[in-house]
Write a structure and sequence with these properties.
Blueprint: E1 3-9, E2 13-17, E3 20-24, E4 29-30, E5 35-38, E6 41-42, E7 60-64, H1 68-75, E8 88-91, E9 103-106, E10 109-116, H2 121-127, H3 132-139, E11 144-150, E12 152-154, E13 160-164, H4 172-181, H5 186-193, H6 200-210, H7 217-222, H8 225-228
Parallel strand pairs: 7-8
Antiparallel strand pairs: 1-4, 1-8, 2-3, 5-6, 5-12, 7-11, 9-10, 9-13, 10-11
Helix pairs in contact: 5-6
Amino acid sequence: MAEVVAVSVGRPAEIPYRGGTVRTAFVKQRQAGPVAVGTLGLEGDEQGDQVRHGGPEKAVMAYAHEHYPYWRQRLEREIEMPAFGENLTVRGMGEDEARIGDVLRLGEAVVEICQARQPCFKIAARYELPKIAKWVQEAGFTGYYMRVLEPGSVWEGAAIERLDSPHPELTISEINRLLYRDKRDADGLRAALAAPQLAAVLRGIFERRLAGAVEDFGERLYGSDELLSQPPG
C-alpha cells in the first residue's frame, strides 16, 4: 500500500553557490505532526523564487522513498529525507506509478497529479554538484507536483489512496521521456496534451514542440548542462 513516509516544509534562506549565494527553500525540515495542506501548499512552506516555483500547479511536491538508496550510492554520501526539496516523501507512488490526472487522498487532503518536477540549478547549489540536475533527469527520478482539490491535513504514515486515474498511460516516467529524451515524439506529445489535467507550463512546452519550435523556455531553462548548473539569466 502506498503511504507518506515524511512530510516536510521549508522557508527561503541563502545557501552558498558559485562564490555567492542563492535564495531557496529547497532545504526543508521534517514535521512530526499533521500539517495543513491548502490550495497553495503546505502550511509553513514557502518559495525563494515565486516566478518558477509555487502556485496551484506546484502546491505539493512528492518524491519516492525508493530512490534514496540509488542516490546514496551515486553520491557516495549519506542523505536523509527530505533530500530533494520534496514536501512529501512517498513509498509505492514513484514515477512509474504516478500518472497525470491521478486523484489521490493523502490523509485528509485530496490532490491531483499534474506535472513532473523539472530539476534546476537549486539542486546543484544544495549539493555543490553542477551536474546533479542532469543526473536526476537521466535517472528519471524527478518527483512530481500536485494541485490540491480538497484542503486537509497530511502526516507521516498517512495512506495514499488513489481515487481516480483517467490517464493510466500518462505516467510521470512517460512525461519525463517526452521532456528529456524523445522531445519530438508527436504522437506522445499529442497524447499528453489530450489530458486536461496537464499543468500549463508543460502544456506550453509540448505545444511549442508540436509547432516545430527548435528551442523553448523549458529546454533553455532545464535542458542543457550549462544552464542546469547555473541560475537562468
